[in-house]
Amino acid sequence: MISYPSLRILFKLSSDRRGLALIEFAFTLPILLTMVLSGAEITNYIIVRMRVSQLALQIADNAARMGNGTMLQLKTLNEADINDLFAGANLQSGILSLQTKGRVILSDLEPQTTSDSNSTYKIKWQRCYGTQPYTSPYPGAGAQNLSGLGPAGNQTIAQQGNATMFVELYYVYTPLVSAKLVPSTTITEIASMSVRDRRDLTGGDNGVYPVSGASKASC
User: Fold this and answer.
1) d(CA 86, CA 10)
2) For 100-123, what is the mean pLDDT?
3) Residues 168 and 104 sit within 8 Å (Cβ to Cβ)
4) Contacts of 59 (CB under 8 A, 6+ apart)
5) How many Cβ atoms are within 10 Å of 135's Cβ, its own excluded?
6) 176-183: long-range contacts (C-beta < 8 A, 24 or more apart)?
7) Cβ atoms within 10 A of the Cβ of 98, count?
8) pTM for the whole structure
9) Which of 18, 67, 126, 209 could be bridged to 204 by S-S, CB 3.0 to 4.6 A?
C-alpha cells in the first residue's frame, strides 16, 4: 500500500513540467539532424553535378576551337593541343580534381563518306584523360557506319566536310556525409560541339599531328 507522502511525491512529479523542453529536443534532434545533413548532402551533389556538366560542355567547346593556322588555311591539330585542353580542364575543375576523380573521353566524329546522301558516321580518333576506370557505352576509335553518337533518340552527328567533338565525362562523387543520401556516387555527363573553323581532317595520325615532347593521350 502506497503511503500518503509517496502519493504526494508522485502527484508532484506528474505535474512537474521542468525539463520538458529538453526531453522534447532530445527526441526531435535525430530527426532534425537527419534533415539538415540530408539537405546539405543533396545540395552539394546538385552543385557538383552542375559543375561536371558545365565542365563537359567547356571541354567540348574548347576542343571545337583548338587548332593552329590562319583564317586562310586549314587549321592543324596536334597532340600538344589536346594535352593542353585536358590540362586546362583539370585546372578549371579546381577542388573537383578531374585528373584523379574523373575520366574524360574525347571523340572525333566525322561523316563516313563525302556523299551528302550517306548519313553514316565514324569515330576517327579518341583521346582520354583521368585515372578513374570507366567503360564507355559508346563505340571506340575506328568505329564506322554509325547513325550518330550519344544516347538513343538524342544522337549527335557531323556535317559534311566537318567534325564534331563529342565528350564523355565520368566523375566519382565524394559524399559529405553518406553515399546513402544521394542518388549515385558516380556522375556521367556528355556534350558535343561542331568544329568552329576549317580543320585539316586528313593529315597526321587520322587528323592529329604528332609533335616533339607531347605524348599521345591514348584511351
Assistant:
1) 75
2) 87
3) yes
4) 85, 86, 89, 104, 106, 167, 169, 191
5) 6
6) 176/37, 176/40, 176/41, 176/44, 177/37, 177/40, 177/41, 178/37, 178/41, 181/37, 181/38, 181/41, 181/42, 182/41, 182/42, 182/45, 183/45
7) 24
8) 0.83
9) 209
